[in-house]
Amino acid sequence: MAKTTDKTAGKAAGKAAGRAAGTAAPEASAPKRSRAKAKASNNKRLTVTLTKSTIGFDNKQWLVVESLGLRKINHTIEVADTPSVRGMIHKVRHLVTVTGGQ
Question: Which CATH number belongs to the domain containing residue 85 in this structure?
């Protein structure tokens, strides 16, 4: 029994030493910002309204409408004006109306 205790104690000590010798803690490093978040902080917003039903259209278009956060006809949301959101709106431009920032 003494051997198993020594083995487990050795493994635990090895793990602790690896953590101590590893890289710096995440909170010590400076936070990284992506371009999308930097652009979103410009306070440019788009108002998107679902004006047409997704019935009869491709299922991928329904997924885009859902991922934008639109739930039913005449539901209006406000989203950040980013290239990814503009691409999503472009895919379903025949189903939505957009105001602001164009």
Answer: 3.30.1390.20
Q: Based on the structure, what is the number of domains in the chain?
A: 1
Write the burial class of residue 91 (CB in 10 Å: 0-12 exposed, 13-18 middle, 19+ buried).
middle
Q: Is the pTM of this model over 0.90?
A: no
Tell me whether residue 50 is exposed, middle or buried, using C-beta atoms within 10 angstroms of its C-beta: 0 to 12, 13 to 18, 19 or more.
buried
Measured distance CA(76)–CA(54) in Å, rounded: 15
Structural domain boundaries, residue 46: 33-102
Residue 64 in tokens: 């885009």
Q: Does 1 fall in a domain?
A: no
pLDDT tens digits for range 51-82? 999 999 999 999 999 999 999 999 999 999 99
Task: Give the three-state DSSP class for 36.
Answer: helix
